[in-house]
Amino acid sequence: MLGPVLLAAARSDSIRRIVAATPVTRPVVDRFIAGERLAESMRVVRDLAARGREITLDYLGEDITDPAEALRNRDAYLLLTEALKTQDLGERAEMSVKLSAFGQALPGGHELALKNVTPVVEAAAEAGTTVTLDMEDHTTVDSTLAILAELRRSFPQTGAVLQSYLFRTEEDCHALAGEGSRVRLVKGAYNEPATVAYQDKREVDRAYVRCLKILMAGQGYPMIGSHDPRMVAIGQELAHRNGRKPAEFEFQMLYGIREAEQERLVAEGHRMRVYVPYGTDWYGYFMRRLAERPANLAFFLRSLATR
Ligand code: FDA
């Protein structure tokens, strides 16, 4: 029941100020966020790479209100691309972007986001790395998939995210299961209405399996974005059934979550990519992590109580 409340709080500026001003927030945030600065997060990336992980980096900058912020976010990603290139990490680390951080929610946002994200995708290709477009709330899906299609004309390696909680997603999986397509399948992290999304977790899980079957049987490159042991096991089984080799799909988990399981999958020879967020605008991301798992929230509340 707390999930929707926390997801609503994730969008509230006044609650953002209270949470940010609470002294114990910081250590809890640090569990999920690699750092506020690029240099700190690159240390985390090098450490993960040394331990056999692949990485996708997310510069936290969603929910902007002004086109100048979109340019700052674009420039932050260009700096990141440069760092990946100079540190020779292009093959191990890619980037995840939220189009809202590039202006998608502003007036004329579709065109603005496409214009702002294109130089990042170009720079990524030059640096030998790729970009995946994160998926946000359901009102953005059409625009995000249209931007993906546009980018893929010149950069077919650009990745997408699909969320199994949306009724439309099985169809989107069919559309994106073709050759060269890279799709991260997740359950979905936003507060969506019953008109567009399954509300019951079991329904979301069943939809996840149906979607994964489509992607695994297709010609593209499926990216299994889940910490759920059942989804991981089903992913392995479907890969086996479809004759996919370890290099033909990957698992993805968020930084700071289920590290032992990440280790185990790497030891079994799987590609295991860690989603590493960094930057100062961590609030929305942090609240979605608290909302999706009572244990994360309990950890936060315990820190408050033991102060
Ligand atoms: P879920 O929360 O359904 O939990 C199922 C089971 O998994 C639990 O019962 C437990 O066994 C295990 N588990 C889950 N979390 C755990 C933890 N912290 N510790 C130990 N066990 C745990 N969403 C979105 O809307 N757009 C996006 O672009 C992305 N991008 C993204 C990238 C990556 C790499 C990941 C992993 C996830 C996302 N998400 C996302 C978030 C996603 O939609 C979803 O909210 C979370 O992954 C939670 O769902 P799970 O499938 O992980 O497990």
Automatic annotation (TrEMBL):
Group of enzyme by EC: oxidoreductase
Catalysed reactions listed for this entry: L-proline + a quinone = (S)-1-pyrroline-5-carboxylate + a quinol + H(+)
Cofactor(s), names only, from the UniProt record: FAD
Alphabetized SUPFAM superfamilies for the sequence: FAD-linked oxidoreductase
InterPro entries in the record: FAD-linked_oxidoreductase-like, PRODH_bac_arc, Proline_DH_dom, Proline_oxidase
Proline dehydrogenase domain boundaries: 44-299
Pathway: Amino-acid degradation; L-proline degradation into L-glutamate; L-glutamate from L-proline: step 1/2
Transmembrane segments: none
Keywords: FAD, Flavoprotein, Nucleotide-binding, Oxidoreductase, Proline metabolism
EC number(s) from the headed UniProt entry: 1.5.5.2
Superkingdom classification of source: Bacteria
PANTHER family for this protein: PROLINE DEHYDROGENASE 1, MITOCHONDRIAL, PROLINE OXIDASE
Protein name per the record: proline dehydrogenase
Lineage, highest ranks first: Bacteria, Bacillati, Actinomycetota, Actinomycetes, Kitasatosporales
